[in-house]
Amino acid sequence: MPQQSAPPAGGVSPVLVGRHTEFTALTAAVAAPPALIVIQGEAGIGKSRLVRELLTAVSGTSAVLVGHCQQLHDPFPLGPVLDAFQHHGDLIEIEGLSPIVGSLAPLVPEIADRLPAPPERPADQREARHQIFRAATELLEHVSPAVLVLEDLHWADTVTFDFLTYLVAHQPAKLTIIVTSRTDLGTTPVGEAFARAPAGRTRSVRLAPLDVAEVGELSRHLLGIDVPDPIAAGLYDVTGGVPFVVEEVLRTLLARLPAAEIPSHPDALAALSVSTALRDVVVQRLTTLDATAREVIAAAAVIELSIDPALLAEVTEHDARQVATALTSAHAAGLLHDQDGRIRFRHVLAQQIIYDATPLPTRQWWHARVAEVLEHRQDPMLSARIAHHYQRADRVREFVRWAEAAADEAVRHGNEAAAAEFLREATADMAALSLDDRVRIATKLGRVAVDGLAHAEAAPILTRLLDSQQLTQAARGELRFALGRLYRQQGFARDGYGEIERAIDDLYDRPDLQARALAVLAAPETVVDVPLEVHLARSLQAEQAASRAGSPDVELGVRIARASLLLEQGDPYAWQLIDAARHDTVLLTQPREHARAAINWAQGALHIGYVSRADELLSEGRSIAERSGSARLLEVYELVCAMMDHAAGRWDGLAERTQELASRAFGFGAASFEAEYLHCLMLGSLGSTVEAAARLTALIRECETVGAAWPLIPARAALARLRLILGDARGGFDAAEAALDQIQRKGMWTWAADALVCLVDAATELGRTDDVRDRVTAIGAHVRQVEAPAISVAVTMCEALIAQLDGDGEAAEQRMSGARTMAHAAGLIQMTAQATERLGDWRCARGAADGPRLLTEALTAYGRLSARQDIARVTRTMRRHGVPVPYPWRGGRPAHGNDLSRREREVVGRAAAGRTNREIAAEMFLSQRTVETHMSNALRKLGLRSRDELDADVLEAQAGG
């Protein structure tokens, strides 16, 4: 006899079906904060149901804060997070809060009486946003132990993602973060936001549809009877195993038949096609409503997922009682439900079906009506919603006006990405706009797209507008400047330089913009084959234009660019300009510009070998970058910090970091080139010489194509060194000579250090020392008066190498010792070790007592870096001289050389457990390419041919070894 009981009220299973594994794992995570939980899956798959079950498990032990993201462009920062706070004033004790938390009071008026008085809002909007981030994080810590739930994160604005990135980096110890996100709407930045979380903190599950047996079990709980396998299979075919669709289909069948009769009526299931099952269910329920209720629910579907009865009454012009009656009817029909104290559609799918079922002319009328009602509220924060509704109403002029207003509002809140999206959409139909409107909006788009990282989409819009013959001179100049900056952001250095250069004359009547454009052209590291003399001339022109502009901000920007140019040249006056700017009151009140200047100066200092000074600038700038709240600047700082650590010899974990940076999709091309270059340096140093050479060759081709001077020139020098390691002296000579030829055309002799040493080493192997003597002498003359440690060390080292070849051992050792001293003073770790190694080799050759000590010192330095190629070379030299090779390098294996890194161990551990690379990438918030690289490196270190040979015993043995 089949078991039978009453169907559950509301048509929702009282038991969570098919999610035992996920529920068990996530319950343990919630119980051990701090934790980050990501629940992903298609619409209707049961993400919210799983969250409710998890929250039930922690009921009474933690405060629960729930926020929902809406399907709207929303420039208002932290909308879902602030939404989560508003009903929890009872958890807040004002005495325990710092004054900064008061900055939330204007944003969450419902709890304002529980917060300190709002502090003064910073003038810089990005600093203000960072203040809000700090306030929200402190408030979360204050109400902890707590669980923060953010539903539908696929609809979140970029500021919310930026906040999650910040929150993860400063996560309170007793806070659990749970987010849900759909996988059927493309990729979202969820992984990026959680990528920097400490290892082991993040738990990610991707919910799959139920199988046939699980559909049968769910049906049994919903119907109160056992369901035969053929009926379960039929339900699975109709619903695809999506739990929400199963529930809705069975609710409809229960309205037609008693539960006990459903198994004997397979024809009822057959009437529902796979593609229309849920639509038929929802439309049928819609037809049971009276005309007023259908009108109200159609208007509600146009507005949003959550329902605002007051707004509905105003839009439909029905009184509050009629709206309440209509919503009650829709609730009874199963179209609405109560969630977190609000009336909502039962599911986004239900809302979409009702929306689609409303005829297009009616939908457009409702959208226009909603926009008009919201307009009358005269709230700037509603600009985005108004623009959205006018766009859906096909009211182009009104949409453009409000999209521009929404973009302005987004910029005020520091959300350039949202602003760029509004402006891009506003320019979608340029023919509908007047010329003045086109120029104004396109110019704004060019301005915000640089920081909003929407440059790839914005550039074609500006290009089309520039083709117009009706533009004024000033408008053309501003658009060209914006387009040039966009090209530069995309990595097209030559094209960007050319557009900005063409804009200069057109900007004469806008000296503020002309000065900024000229300052960009003064930067030598951005483009190849533009001589230093041109950059210097542009710098002087920028100063003249800034003087005409009479703006302290513009003058400061020009001085910052001037300091960077002089620094790259090795002009000691640069440091006076930098020190003055660092104490300039204008710069101190602009954290974003301060951070940008610090990173530019730090990079310049690294380019010429001032490692310790670069470190100082980065230390100063890192906290400023965090205060600025700019995701782009923080991303650049992460990259430059990796460069800094490479130069300073802080290589612990650096290979892993550079690999992740190289696989990251940076928002601007120049950073992608730099990240790849740094990754190649690490690959070459750690033994993957062939791969590093191949990747450097590809990088050089890319840089040549776009005209990027940096890292093209150092990449050529690095390739020269790898060619020498691979025994290709001729290839090394050609690569080094190509780098020096470009340096000569550029006139930037301070960049020649690595290429010059490689050229001399290659010439020595080829017996062509006479071919490079004059070059060493000429470069030495060029840099005699500059302050640039790297090239000074390199010239001295090359002079020592030539003296040694000439048989003047005393002069050679004296110069090499001088190079070693200079390199050490500048913090040039690798150059110090190289000079020490060469000096030790020569002293051992003539029997000097300190020769073995010098070689051991070089070996120790390379060992700290785990630089395999260098370790192998110096140990060969030691054995040749009969110098004992100390443990652990005696067998030729460097300490940690074949050990798995933390990331590699995580990857192979998951692979050994049967995960695919795609699954590992999703679980670890990495790109699939990064996982493949980790896997390849790990297999090589373990001596395995494929992942099929991985097992727990192999991993345990490697760990023990």
Structural key phrases:
single chain, 961 residues, mainly alpha, five-stranded parallel β-sheet, two-stranded antiparallel sheet, 7 strands, globular, disordered N terminus, disordered C terminus
Topology summary:
Layout: H1 20-30, E1 35-41, H2 47-57, E2 63-68, H3 79-85, H4 125-143, E3 146-151, H5 158-169, E4 175-182, H6 190-194, E5 202-206, H7 212-223, H8 229-239, H9 243-256, H10 266-270, H11 277-287, H12 291-303, H13 309-316, H14 320-332, E6 336-339, E7 342-345, H15 348-357, H16 360-375, H17 383-392, H18 396-412, H19 416-426, H20 435-452, H21 455-466, H22 473-490, H23 493-503, H24 511-521, H25 532-549, H26 552-569, H27 573-582, H28 585-588, H29 591-608, H30 611-628, H31 631-648, H32 654-663, H33 669-685, H34 689-706, H35 709-725, H36 729-746, H37 753-766, H38 770-782, H39 789-805, H40 809-826, H41 829-845, H42 851-865, H43 868-880, H44 902-912, H45 917-924, H46 928-942, H47 952-960
Helix pairs in contact: 1-2, 7-8, 7-9, 8-9, 9-11, 11-15, 12-13, 12-14, 12-15, 12-16, 13-14, 16-17, 17-18, 18-19, 19-20, 20-21, 20-22, 21-22, 22-23, 23-24, 24-25, 24-26, 25-26, 26-27, 26-29, 29-30, 29-31, 30-31, 31-32, 31-33, 32-33, 32-46, 33-34, 33-35, 34-35, 35-36, 35-37, 36-37, 37-38, 37-39, ...
